[in-house]
Design brief:
single chain; mainly alpha
Length: 208
């Protein structure tokens, strides 16, 4: 007997999942964040072109800021930032990586450090999740992200890895919720992809 593919359990499950994401607003959330990223990139390009052409020399500014800092110190600061709530935008470090002879190797190193920072965030979130007061504080402080992880699981972790959403915070909350660690490690690979995508955009802007 030939099974109707439309009525197969796999298709039925996909349709059920699609209806769930539609009902809970995932597609709207994804669209808004995509538009946000595009708007940010467009704004950066426009501002950069205007300022670079008529006002500032960005190359000189970046060199004056970064050249006086120890490479090891910058990488340590980046690891700490990516491990504890992502306090510094990672794009600044991508720009810093441009000063090296092999900037893409530095982007690869930064992406690996960011990935490691996400694992550290997950680990300490897993540990403090059992402490009632800390759990309560973080749950209230990051209520929106907490709800989205519980609602959308893996897809929200992927979106956080790729988009300008506080990735470290999402990793901490994933640990608190005891999200399956092996799956979390695979999902974290999207963080590496993010660095190369943003590197292409930022390096392209500075080369204009």
């Amino acid at each position: 007997m030939i099974q109707d593919p439309i009525n197969s359990p796999y298709i039925t499950a996909m349709l059920r999942r699609h209806r769930y994401y539609t009902k809970t607003g995932f597609y709207k959330f994804l669209l808004l964040n995509t538009l946000k990223v595009l708007a940010i990139i467009l704004a950066v390009v426009i501002v950069f072109i205007i300022l670079e052409k008529w006002v500032l020399d960005f190359e000189a500014i970046f060199k004056s800021i970064f050249n006086d800092l120890s490479n090891g110190l910058v990488l340590i600061v980046f690891l700490l930032s990516e491990s504890f709530f992502g306090l510094i935008p990672p794009d600044l470090f991508i720009l810093w990586g441009r000063k090296f002879e092999s900037p893409w190797l530095m982007v690869a190193l930064l992406s690996a450090i960011s990935y490691m920072g996400g694992v550290i965030s997950y680990a300490w979130g897993y540990k403090v999740g059992g402490i009632k007061k800390i759990n309560l504080y973080l749950t209230k402080r990051f209520k929106d992200n907490f709800t989205k992880i519980k609602r959308w699981g893996a897809l929200f972790i992927i979106v956080a890895a790729l988009f300008p959403i506080p990735y470290s915070v999402v990793c901490v909350l994933s640990g608190m919720l005891k999200y399956p660690f092996k799956i979390f490690l695979w999902l974290g690979l999207f963080r590496i992809l993010r660095f190369f995508i943003y590197g292409l955009v930022l390096f392209g802007i500075l080369s204009m």
